[in-house]
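Q: Structure tokens for this one, please.
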Amino acid sequence: MNESRAKRASQIWLVLVLLWAMARAVFVNKLFGSHGVNGLIYLAVDLASSVPYAIYSARLVITFINHDFKNVYKNILLTSLFFYIPDVYILIAARRVPSGLYLILFLTIALFSAFAIATIARDIRNKRRTAHGGAENSR
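A: Here is the predicted structure, written as tokens:
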């Protein structure tokens, strides 16, 4: 992948992640606002972590494609860290939350974790196909 295409892909991913952060803030405020979670603080935490998440998840795909496994592991760690920071804020700030609401939170975290992993895996497969002229080795 040439550098300009990688940069463009990173920029698009950054915009999508930031838009998603705003949508999540509205949802979190509705569910947890009456339990001590400040929606604006959540949005600030989410936006602040979304930028490095977008950067490191894009780098993860690129380093994986380039077989730069030393940096793949670093990017997995940093991608994971920035992905979960907003959820950690909810867990720290929330007070007197019904167990059912915590269950919804943890199921949502699991669902979006699976989605994030699947998206990154798909991006890796797509970029491999592009790098190999449209053909990928079958497993």
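A few notes: The chain is about 85% helix and 0% strand. Residues 4 and 10 are 10 Å apart (CA to CA).
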